[in-house]
Amino acid sequence: MAKTKLKILIIESDLVFRRSLYKVLSKNDYTVFVAANDTEARELCEQMQFHLVIIDIRYSSTFDIECLRHLRVLHPDSKVIIISTFRRREFEKNFLTTDFDSYLMKPVKRVELLKTVRQTLLPFSTV
User: Fold this and answer.
1) Counts for the chain of helices (H) and strands (E), in that order
2) Which residues contact 70 (CB under 8 A, 6 or more apart)?
3) pLDDT, tens digit, for every residue of 43-92?
4) How many Å apart are CA 59 and CA 67, to the nearest integer?
5) Model-wide pTM > 0.90
6) What distance in Å separates the CA atoms of residue 73 and residue 97, rounded to the nearest whole number?
7) Residue 86: how many CB atoms within 10 A of its CB?
8) Please, what are the domains in the chain?
9) ω into residue 76 within 30 of 0, thus cis?
């Protein structure tokens, strides 16, 4: 019996970075979907369940945090990796949230991304 590929949603407004994340993850045997904004992300989340959501949180964007909260309501079991230009403590202080599973600071290196994704998805890989 074939193993089901784990589904990942990338929410990233920057086209180049979004494509880069997509390429790295899809080449590593994940089923990857992309959203350029919170509207696209919400539509995808209403259509299907993702094992992992990778979301870029920008400095001035409350939309990103609202999108994360909406995702948590729809799919509380989905894992979340935040990507941001903030340091982790600064991020938690500014956005008053710790509702995520892993955190990466931009710029993200390929090796670091894959390691973090694998660790975050570990509970799903044993199912």
Assistant:
1) 5, 5
2) 38, 42, 45
3) 999 999 999 999 988 755 566 777 788 888 888 899 999 998 878 777 77
4) 15
5) no
6) 15
7) 18
8) 7-125 (3.40.50.2300)
9) no
